[in-house]
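R.M. (postdoc): so does anyone remember the format we settled on? I'll just put the C-alpha cells first.
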C-alpha cells in the first residue's frame, strides 16, 4: 500500500515534490482524464498511464505530428510512465487490480459502465484497497437519465450554458478554440482528488469522485441560474462585451488591432474617462456605479471607441498603463512566445526531445514557493515502461514475454 506523499522525504539535493510518493493509475484517454493525471505528475506523482497496446492513446496522433507523434502529446503526457495493456483481456484486468491495490489514485474517463464491464468496478477496487481514491470523469456523470450517453467536451460546453454565450449577437454561437470543457472537468477532478486525499489523511478511507463534463462547465457560469430564477432573465450572447459590467469590451484601434479595456471599477472608470478627455462622463453622478454605467453602456463604448480609433494598439495600451487602467492586447501564440513576462515567469519551457531536437512547451502552474512542479521526464513512447512496471509487480522476464506474445502487453525489455 502506498504511503501518503509526505512519508517519502527526498534525498539530499533532490527537488521537493508536493506529491512525491503518490502513485496514480491513469486509465483514460484523450483529454479530461489524462489532463488531470498530467497535473498530478507535474508535481511529482508517479503516474502510470495504461493505454491500448495496439495504437495507444489517440492523442498521440492528434493535430500536428513531429516524427510520428503529436507535439501535444509532449505536454499532455510529460512526467508519466506508459504501460501498454489490453484491458479487454482478463489477465490484463488482473494486473490492473494488482496495481490498484498499491495505488493511491485511479483516474478513468471512459463511458459509464466500461470499468464495470472489465471487472474493474470502483466498489470492487475499494474492497481490495480501501484507501484508493477513484476519479471518474464522464460527459453526464455516473447517474441520471443521460448517464449512458456518449459525451464529449463540445457537447458539455453547450449543455453547461457556455456555448450559448460565445457569439456576436444574432450570429451562430461558436465554440471556444480549445477543449475547455474537458480541461475544466480535469481541474475539478484534481480538486476532488486533493479533497479526498485530505479526508483520507484523517479517516484512512478512499472514495469515488464523480465529475461530469457539463457540470464542470456549469459550475463556471457565474450568475446565469440565479438571474433566471429571480428575474426570468436569459442572458444572450454579447460578443466581446460582458453583460451587466461596464465598460468592458474590445475596442478597434487605428492600426486595425483591438485593445481590451476593463474600466468597470468605479475609480478606474473615472481615470479612464479623464484619460480620453471625457470628464463629463467620469464625473457624472449617474455613472458613479456599475448599475448606472450598464444603463448607458452603448454611450460609454462609443466614447471609448472614438478615442481608440485615433491611436495604435501600442499607443492605447501605453496610455492606459500610465493611467492604471486594466487593458491588454489579443495575443496570438507568436505574441506569447515572444513575450518577456511569459519568459520571466517560466511559462516557455525548452525541453530536449529523445532524438536531440528541442521543443518549447508550456510551463507548469500553479507556482508553489517550496514545492514547485517541474518537467522531469519526457512523454513516454507506447509501452516504454511496461517491462519495468510489471517487474515491480513481481513478474519475471519470461512471464512478461509471454504476455507480449499473446498481444496483451506491448513494451521493450528494459
Amino acid at each position: 500500500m502506498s504511503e501518503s506523499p509526505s512519508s517519502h522525504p527526498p534525498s539530499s539535493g533532490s527537488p521537493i515534490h508536493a506529491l512525491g510518493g503518490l502513485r496514480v493509475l491513469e486509465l483514460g484517454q484523450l483529454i479530461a482524464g489524462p489532463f488531470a493525471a498530467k497535473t498530478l505528475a507535474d508535481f511529482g506523482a508517479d503516474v502510470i498511464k495504461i493505454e491500448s497496446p495496439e495504437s495507444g492513446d489517440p492523442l498521440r496522433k492528434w493535430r500536428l505530428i513531429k516524427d510520428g507523434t503529436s507535439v501535444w502529446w509532449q505536454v499532455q503526457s510529460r512526467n508519466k510512465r506508459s504501460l501498454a495493456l489490453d484491458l479487454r483481456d482478463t489477465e490484463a484486468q488482473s494486473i490492473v487490480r494488482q496495481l490498484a491495490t498499491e495505488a493511491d489514485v485511479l483516474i478513468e474517463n471512459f463511458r459509464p459502465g466500461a470499468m464495470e464491464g472489465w471487472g474493474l468496478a470502483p466498489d470492487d477496487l475499494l474492497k481490495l484497497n480501501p484507501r484508493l481514491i477513484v476519479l471518474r470523469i464522464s460527459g453526464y456523470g455516473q447517474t441520471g437519465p443521460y448517464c449512458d450517453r456518449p459525451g464529449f467536451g463540445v457537447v458539455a460546453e453547450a449543455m453547461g450554458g457556455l456555448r450559448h454565450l460565445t457569439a456576436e449577437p444574432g450570429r451562430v454561437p461558436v465554440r471556444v478554440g480549445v477543449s475547455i470543457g474537458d480541461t475544466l472537468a480535469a481541474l475539478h477532478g484534481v480538486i476532488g482528488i486533493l479533497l479526498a486525499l485530505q479526508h483520507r489523511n484523517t479517516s484512512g478511507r478512499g472514495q469515488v469522485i464523480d465529475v461530469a463534463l457539463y457540470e464542470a462547465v456549469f459550475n463556471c457560469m457565474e450568475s446565469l441560474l440565479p438571474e433566471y430564477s429571480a428575474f426570468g432573465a436569459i442572458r444572450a450572447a454579447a460578443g466581446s462585451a460582458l453583460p451587466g459590467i461596464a465598460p468592458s469590451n474590445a475596442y478597434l484601434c487605428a492600426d486595425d488591432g483591438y485593445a481590451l479595456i476593463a474600466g468597470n471599477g468605479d475609480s478606474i472608470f473615472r481615470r479612464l474617462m479623464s484619460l480620453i478627455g471625457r470628464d463629463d462622463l467620469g464625473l457624472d453622478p449617474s455613472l458613479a456605479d456599475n448599475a448606472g454605467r450598464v444603463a448607458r453602456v452603448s454611450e460609454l463604448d462609443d466614447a471609448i471607441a472614438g478615442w481608440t480609433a485615433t491611436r495604435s494598439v501600442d499607443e492605447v495600451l501605453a496610455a492606459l498603463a500610465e493611467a492604471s487602467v486594466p487593458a491588454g492586447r489579443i495575443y496570438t501564440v507568436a505574441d506569447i512566445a515572444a513575450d518577456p513576462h511569459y519568459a520571466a515567469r517560466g511559462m516557455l519551457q525548452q525541453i530536449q526531445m529523445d532524438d536531440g531536437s528541442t521543443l518549447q512547451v508550456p510551463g507548469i502552474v500553479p507556482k508553489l514557493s517550496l514545492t514547485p512542479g517541474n518537467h522531469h521526464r519526457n512523454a513516454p513512447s507506447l509501452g516504454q515502461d511496461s517491462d519495468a512496471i510489471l517487474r515491480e509487480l513481481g513478474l519475471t522476464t519470461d512471464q512478461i514475454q509471454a504476455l507480449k506474445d499473446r498481444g496483451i502487453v506491448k513494451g521493450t525489455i528494459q
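R.M.: ...and that's the designed sequence above, right after the C-alpha cells. Also worth knowing: Residues 1-12 have pLDDT under 50 and may be disordered. The radius of gyration is 25 Å.
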